[in-house]
Design goal:
Length: 194
């Protein structure tokens, strides 16, 4: 009888251990969710800018404070007291306010006469990348720094896509054609086997 009593306890213990093993994965994904959202929004903004070949200033102006909030959230655990948290919020607010002002200076008519829409879009994205990287340095967050580096790498990628859109389109069509032929051949072979 003692053997049957220990089995439910052993089962609960094993179930509890399995739950604990899955919690770090879930918490990891939840912790990384804000960084992933910012990265996805950045990539969508770059794709939109590259496709329309015009800057989407309002989009970047909304993304900058969002990145600021992510940076504050990332630095919050390291801010141990009320003064440190207040300083974190104030420095990030000033940091992103300065970048928003510079981003808007780029949109002035006198600057737009010198730079075309593509150059303005890439300059705004580079400013956003620089702001994100430096915000990560200030809050000592490798994730925010990595976001800034990825954004910076999006600038030459967007420039390359804009410069070689026809080549990219032809390569994409060729890959789709090869994929369709391979799928058709695989489907045909699978049909002969059955």
């Amino acid at each position: 009888m003692s053997g049957t009593e220990s089995d439910p306890q052993e089962f609960r213990s094993t179930e509890h251990e399995a739950t604990e093993r899955h919690l770090p994965r879930i918490s990891f994904w939840i912790r990384e969710l804000p960084f992933s959202v910012v990265l996805i929004l950045t990539i969508l903004g770059v794709a939109y800018t590259s496709f329309l070949k015009q800057p989407i200033m309002g989009y970047w102006e909304l993304l900058a404070p969002l990145i600021g909030l992510v940076a504050v959230g990332s630095g919050w655990p390291n801010a141990n007291d009320k003064n440190a948290r207040f300083r974190l919020i104030c420095t990030q607010a000033l940091h992103w306010s300065a970048f928003l002002i510079v981003m808007n200076i780029i949109m002035l008519p006198s600057v737009q006469r010198i730079l075309d829409a593509n150059a303005i879009g890439l300059a705004v994205l580079m400013l956003l990348a620089l702001g994100t990287f430096t915000a990560g340095v200030h809050v000592v967050s490798w994730q925010v720094c990595l976001l800034g580096l990825i954004m910076a790498l999006c600038v030459p990628a967007a420039a390359w896509i804009q410069a070689s859109a026809l080549i990219v389109l032809l390569v994409a069509v060729a890959l789709l054609g090869v994929g369709a032929v391979l799928w058709w051949r695989w489907h045909e072979l699978h049909a002969h086997k059955t």
